[in-house]
Amino acid sequence: LKCSYVVQEQEREFLINYGNKNWLIQKEDIPTSLNNLKEVNALLAHQPWRVTPQHIGKLLRNSEWTLPSLIHAFVIMANVRATASFALSMGIVPETDFLSDVSIQQRNPDSYEQADEEQTAVVIDKLLQSNRGNLQNSQGNGGNSPNYKVKVFASVTSSIDNDPCSEQYLLESSEWSQVQEARFNTEFSNISYQDFDTNSTEYEILHSEDFSWDTQGFPLVKRFCPSFADQLDSCFKCIRNLTYESFNDQKSINTYPFRMSIWYYVHRLFGIYHDDFDYRTINLYVHQRIKNFIKKAACFPYTIALEDVANMGVRLQPEEKAHIALLVSEAKKQAELLYALNAVSKYLALS
Asked: Helix, strand, or coil here: 139?
């Protein structure tokens, strides 16, 4: 909704393919079956852990949805959001949407140069140690116990409170966003991202040993939507495995730990716990400023400013920053689908 580039492109494609233009003008003209998706769509976008089998059952009972078409809809919605996340992360916007009245606080290159070089050297050294199998975490006793691992899982998130380019600041500065808010406002527009509370009594952590993409999610999509299941799975694998075997100007280096730390950090933001992953490695490889960028890109990408991309705390090539944005958008897409498909799986078990 807040990515004008994606919205305008999708509207154009919709009309080119003879879509009903009234759907884009008056909410009352939107088909009931699409209107019924509004709540689940909002939850998947911001708090996917709150999607339940009851949501699935309600959609199947009260509208024209079938399980194959509903899963297809989940994939479309998640894919559109992933595209918007990447576009906003990389500053891909129509010229008319340029926020000329937003004053972005520019950094002084000299003030960061030494810190960037030092932090880059630290990450490269840790990656080289990991490549040689020499990297060890000195976390004391109990580092492998389940309780300790969950505590580490809960502690790796980042806070970006008091950011100079806050959500409200950007919204107030964007006339286009205000117009779109009024145009597409629904009774579920007040649903927004909230930090996942690992101690909540209202919902639970989603453990990968209970429901994972490879074991449960992908087979479920394959069962109901075989025409694109393999393509979806290949996309996830392609983005995760993409590498030039370099980090900034350091060549012949395996960046797998860095890439997976980003992927699993995004899943952490949405309460997905991978039982076979050591969450201590996130703080080893992912600088705090990269964490801030990841959280913005995954949770509210419309707040990303030039400073977030220009200064990630370590020196990165432009294509490496683009890869980080792709990792974030695809990991968020997979997180959404895991919760949606988990709800479908539980619905089937109850039926």
From this structure: coil
Sequential pLDDT tens for the chain (351 residues): 688 889 889 999 999 999 999 999 888 899 999 999 999 999 999 999 999 999 999 999 977 899 999 999 999 999 999 999 999 999 886 755 444 443 333 444 444 444 577 788 888 888 888 877 765 554 444 456 667 677 777 777 655 544 444 444 444 444 444 545 555 566 677 888 999 999 999 999 999 999 999 999 999 999 999 999 999 999 999 999 999 999 988 899 999 999 999 999 999 999 999 999 999 999 999 999 999 999 999 999 999 988 899 989 999 999 999 999 999 999 999 999 999 999 999 999 998
pTM assigned to the model: 0.85
* N-to-C CA span, the chain: 35
Q: Count helices and strands (H / E) in the chain.
A: 16, 4
Read off the tokens for 132.
């040689």
Phi and psi dihedrals of 102, rounded to 5?
A: -90, 125
Six token digits for residue 147? 């309780």
Q: How far apart are CA 332 and CA 36, in angstroms?
A: 23
Q: Are 42 and 185 in contact (CB under 8 A)?
A: no
* SS3 letters across 313-325: CCCCCHHHHHHHH
How far is 197 from 201, CA to CA, in rounded Å? 9
